[in-house]
Amino acid sequence: MIQRTGATVQTDSPIETVQLDKSWQQLLSEAVSEPEQLLQRLQLPGSMQASMQAASENFALRVPEPFLKLIEPGNPQDPLLLQVLPQARELDQLPGYVADPLAEQSSNPDAGIIHKYHGRLLLVISGGCAINCRYCFRRHFPYQDNQLSGTQWQAVLDYLNEHPEVEEVIFSGGDPLATPDSRLIRLIDDLEQLPQLKRVRIHTRLPVAIPQRLTDALRQRLSRSRLQAVMVLHLNHPNEIGDELKHWLQPWRQSNITLLNQSVLLEGINDRAEVLIELSERLFAEGILPYYVHLLDPVAGAAHFDMDEQKARQLVGAMAAKLPGYMVPKLTREQPGVSAKVQLSPDLPDKS
Ligand SMILES: *Cc1c(COP(=O)(O)O)cnc(C)c1O
Ligand code: SF4
């Protein structure tokens, strides 16, 4: 068990800690963005502010309330805090850590389209995120040039018509669920008209930051779509599964929507086998299959999160030695110019 004390520890009546009165948009607009405010809110020493300031000017601090509630007050090493806390060392320039580690800007045929893998087209449908993760490989991505506007959406439909081999459209970002339901529903309406398409997939961390984002309107639209719907969540640590997420996720589990998770392996956050095993078990208990664990993409500012490849293979090996196969995610690394994500084999311990 991961021991944790804090605002949302389990009670006999889990609903007590669930926020029912605010919309996701309201929670999004009220996200904490000032270093001082974060420190006060979490009862952390004001002396931490100096280190946060410059880093947050480079890539803004952003943490919504539901995620904040999962962080243990007074603990500067909390694994959820470390994912969102700006730190001076992000500004260190280290060889090999670059602005566009996946060379995505070269597989960007049109604004908002990334066509890198056969049969799947990734669309950057939103520039925003509900939470700013310090390790994010897109922290320097030129979103302003890459958001799909109305006219560009027509260009996406044209591109799909010219590429009948594409069977799956992936909504990505930023975070695609930062987009209002009304717009998402219009996009799905249009995509359904393309007979070649079989699946629509959403890559999102928003429900982890603001579980209230799991609205009925979106769920019902996806559930009755001709397209098979897949939602790939992004959780890195078992503490990210709180009562609110469980509550809002519940109806999605019964809605014919495949739920998967991807994690990034992060030094100091999920770098122990017990943590990753607990994450897989808690994901599966909520109806989510662990899909991928990724090695960090070497983005400038995130070197301190980077995990050694050998250690990553041992961690996944330790998971495989303890868990049923369907709870062991694939370990992958992205490599520019290769036809799929590169899979690394787990390093299995001897049987004891
Ligand atoms: C990861 C990724 C995909 C999806 O790959 P899967 O292995 O099918 O999950 C598609 N396009 C891009 C650009 C990606 O990075
Ligand atoms: S794209 Fe995902 S990982 Fe990056 S900041 Fe947004 S939510 Fe976090």
Overview of the structural elements:
The protein is an alpha/beta fold. It folds into 2 domains: 3-91, no CATH class; 104-343, Aldolase class I (TIM Barrel). It contains 12 helices and 9 strands. The protein has a 9-stranded mixed beta sheet with strand order 1-2-3-4-5-6-7-8-9. The longest helix is centred in the C-terminal third of the chain and has 14 residues, at 309-322. It starts with 23 loop residues before the first helix and ends in an 8-residue tail after the last strand. Mean pLDDT is 91; it is low at 1-16. It binds pyridoxal-5'-phosphate (PLP) and iron/sulfur cluster. Residues 129, 131-133, 136, 138, 173-175, 205, 234 line the site of iron/sulfur cluster.
Per CATH, the superfamily of the largest domain is Aldolase class I
Query: Counting H and I runs of at least 4 residues, what is the number of helices?
Result: 12
Structural class: alpha/beta
Neighbour order of strands in the largest sheet:
1-2-3-4-5-6-7-8-9
The CATH architecture assignment of the largest domain turns out to be Alpha-Beta Barrel
CATH topology of the largest domain: TIM Barrel
Percent of residues in beta strands: 5-15%
**Judging from the principal axes of the Cα atoms, what is the shape?**
globular
User: Termini, distance in Å?
Assistant: 22 Å
Major β-sheet profile: 9 strands, mixed
Query: Ligands bound here?
Result: pyridoxal-5'-phosphate, iron/sulfur cluster
Pfam family, one: Radical_SAM
Catalytic activity: L-lysine = D-beta-lysine
Family: Belongs to the radical SAM superfamily. KamA family.
Keywords: 4Fe-4S, Iron, Iron-sulfur, Isomerase, Metal-binding, Pyridoxal phosphate, S-adenosyl-L-methionine
